[in-house]
Specification:
The chain is built from six helices and two strands. It has about 130 residues and is mainly α. Homodimer.
Length: about 130
Amino acid sequence: MNIGHAAADTGLSVKTIRYYEEIGLIEADRAANGYRDFGERHLDQLRFLAQARHLGFGLDECRRLLELYADPDRTSRSVRDLAIENLESVRAKITQLRTLETRLETLIDQCHGNDDPDCAILDSLEKGAHD
């Protein structure tokens, strides 16, 4: 199967699939003409990667998950530990987003939103640019 069909089948973009191959997450076979040839095993790996990325795993974690998936001697503890690390990262991002939300709410509340040119949002951005 060519890369376009693999992209359509997995929901990933052609660019993403090429990138995954470039960084060594997957290794497509090559047809006699040099074009990538994706078999069912490759499609399974790409679907696996898509799901892992949807769960917030980074590329390094995805690489590790693929290794664990392929390892018949893996322990579920290893997979669980990796998932716990990812959850901690997700929680840290949520905390950062909540802080950002509060800051934006404060700025919006401080902006009068009328016909005057004065704006607390722009003032804050300007101040931050000079800090």
